[in-house]
Write a structure and sequence with these properties.
By secondary structure, this protein is α+β, with helices and mostly antiparallel strands. The strands form 6 sheets. Strands 15, 16, 17, 18, 19, 20, 21 and 22 form an 8-stranded mixed β-sheet that branches. A 5-stranded mixed β-sheet has the order 4-5-14-13-12, covered by helices on one side. Strands 8-9-11-10 form a 4-stranded antiparallel β-sheet, with helices on one face. The chain is globular, with a radius of gyration of 30 Å.
């Protein structure tokens, strides 16, 4: 007898006797369940085995046996729904619960945190939105950037603790000249689909990466010997090993089809491979053939829950509730900020009077005063005075500019963000006081970074979170898909770009990154708004869970210490 049919039999029996313990006999039960006395014995025995009922058979002719219900129909329904949730079947679970979303949320919370199944260590985390694009050659949001680091490897990487360049797919490298670098590749590295990495995969990937401004000085990539990659440059670059740690330069198979399937289930060489990715769950499984140290957690299972605060992660423990999350000492200010990017090419900010007006009215203080704390969840926002915490490039005082002639301001921001719609609402309130209307566009990250509708947008509301705390980390954002270059006066961008070129060509020269940050803010190209808290709020049961600059943690390094 199937489990589902047995549940239906129990439900019929429970409803007939109204869940009350009673005296009855096999014939009466056979009539209730529409089966023979022989089958009744089998059904009763199975229900007793499962602990649903207790059956006390009578001794002597004509006496009644006693039926005791150990579970209610509701409890059985709940047990079934719990099993479905554990299997990730959320829609059937919701149906089993009578479409009661509150009960489903409670069952999901029970499943979060650390667990062991068939000897495998599983870490379940809540998050607030799905991950629809994990192609490193496409524009990615902060969390997707972190996940890509768990799936792929570059020739080099940045050590998160020491902030130094170290080997990844390349175990050594050398500069044969400032324009000719040689990287020595680890042998026998495997992709998640079992194929061996070869130099052609690296060559094809870097040929694609050359299309991006940050990599345009790569003139040729070839392989003169086995497991050896030569990179030829059009200009001197003493800092190429650090550039090879850039997210764009992680290595993909040469024959990768950059389609929707690749965006959801990318193939890399990293410590984890994607085994599930949909609107409800994202699951990573440790890659046993990873060339580095094998991950200590077997499965990282991320559940999409709309009520989760997106500013930090909290692995759940038994009895904990999502709404009880608070910022702890483990959290850090993000290495970046939320900001407004003004279109100074063909937007309103190309006019000096509009630039002055927007700079003096759309300040962090003005916007913060209009944000309703009950609508922005667990974000702890603080005013930003520069692009990074500790940078102070915003003028201390500015004369309030009068409103220009009445116009409509077009504001764009990324979809599925828990705070930006409320920031947009605050901006609307500020501008409406001067009779200025606002038109809002919610766009995908790809649409924003690609410049779609750029000539029709006046302001972009966005955020930056850098992958590490190195001074040069800002360059990945500054050059990213030409989003800033597209709306910045050409001579201003070119001056900053040339400063980067000179820095790459001179080992002794100081980084120009603070200069870049200062210029962007002082010119009004970028209006910094807020820094916010990112990180991991952990109760201490999971070891090695240290927040990184992206607000996540290195999955392969965490582990669970057995309790006494």
């Amino acid at each position: 007898m199937s489990s589902q049919r047995l549940k239906a039999q129990f439900q019929r029996l429970y409803n007939h006797f109204s869940g009350e313990d009673c005296e009855t006999n096999l014939q009466d039960i056979a009539e209730v369940l529409f089966c023979t006395r022989r089958n009744v014995r089998m059904v009763i025995n199975k229900m007793v085995e499962k602990g649903w009922i207790d059956w006390q058979p009578a001794v002597g002719r004509g006496k009644q046996s006693k039926l005791v219900f150990q579970s209610s129909d509701t409890e059985l329904q709940y047990m079934h729904a719990r099993k479905l949730v554990a299997e990730g079947k959320l829609e059937p679970a919701l149906e089993a619960l009578g479409n009661n979303a509150d009960k489903l949320a409670q069952l999901i919370q029970e499943q979060l945190g650390h667990t062991t199944a068939q000897g495998r260590q599983i870490l379940r985390l809540p998050y607030y939105r799905p991950f629809s694009n994990l192609n490193p050659l496409h524009p990615l949001r902060r969390s997707e950037q972190h996940l890509v680091r768990q799936i792929f490897n570059g020739l080099t990487r940045i050590n998160e603790e020491k902030e130094e360049v170290e080997g990844d797919l390349a175990h050594h490298w050398e500069a044969l000249s400032p324009r000719h670098w040689r990287f020595y590749i680890r042998p026998a590295v495997k992709f998640h689909d079992g194929r061996l990495l070869d130099c052609q995969d690296i060559i094809v990937t870097l040929e694609q990466v050359r299309k991006h401004r940050l990599f345009r000085h790569l003139s040729q990539v070839d392989s003169p010997f086995s497991n050896t990659i030569d990179i030829h440059l059009s200009r001197d670059d003493h800092r190429l090993p650090a550039l090879m740690a850039n997210l764009l330069a992680v290595i993909q198979p040469a024959d990768t089809d950059h389609d929707k399937e690749n965006e959801l289930f990318p193939i890399g060489t990293g410590p984890y491979r994607v085994i599930q990715n949909d609107k409800q769950r994202f699951k990573l499984e440790a890659f046993d053939q990873y060339f580095g140290l094998r991950a200590l957690i077997d499965v990282v299972d991320i559940w999409m829950l709309s009520e989760v605060a997106s500013c930090f992660l909290q692995p759940m423990t038994e009895g904990s509730q999502l709404q009880e999350m608070t910022v702890s000492a483990r959290l850090k200010l993000d290495e970046g900020c939320n900001y407004l990017l003004l279109n100074r090419i063909n937007g309103l900010a190309s006019q000096q009077e509009w630039l002055a007006y927007l700079r003096t009215h759309l300040t962090p203080l003005n916007i913060m005063q209009r944000l309703q704390q009950d609508k922005i969840g667990d974000f702890r926002l603080i005013n930003a005075y520069g692009l990074l915490p500790g940078w102070a490039h915003v003028p201390l005082s500015q004369a309030i500019a009068p409103p220009p002639s009445k116009r409509i301001v077009t504001l764009a921001y990324p979809q599925q963000h828990p705070v930006y719609p409320h920031v947009a609402e605050a901006i609307r309130d500020i501008l409406s006081a001067d009779g200025i209307k606002i038109k809002e566009l919610e766009l995908s990250t790809g649409e924003i970074q690609s410049g779609k509708h750029a000539d029709k947008i006046d302001i972009w509301l966005g955020g930056m979170s850098l992958s590490n705390y190195r001074d040069d980390a800002i360059l990945s954002w500054f050059y990213s898909f030409d989003h800033i270059a597209r709306v910045m006066p050409e001579e201003e961008f070119e001056a900053l770009d040339q400063a980067v070129v000179r820095w790459r060509a001179d080992k002794q020269q100081a980084s120009p990154c603070q200069q870049i940050g200062a210029k962007l803010v002082e010119s009004g190209q970028i209006l910094p708004l807020f820094h916010n808290w990112l990180g991991v709020d952990n109760n201490g049961s999971i070891q090695g869970m240290q927040s990184n600059s992206m607000g996540w943690f290195d999955f392969k390094s965490v582990w669970v210490k057995p309790t006494q």
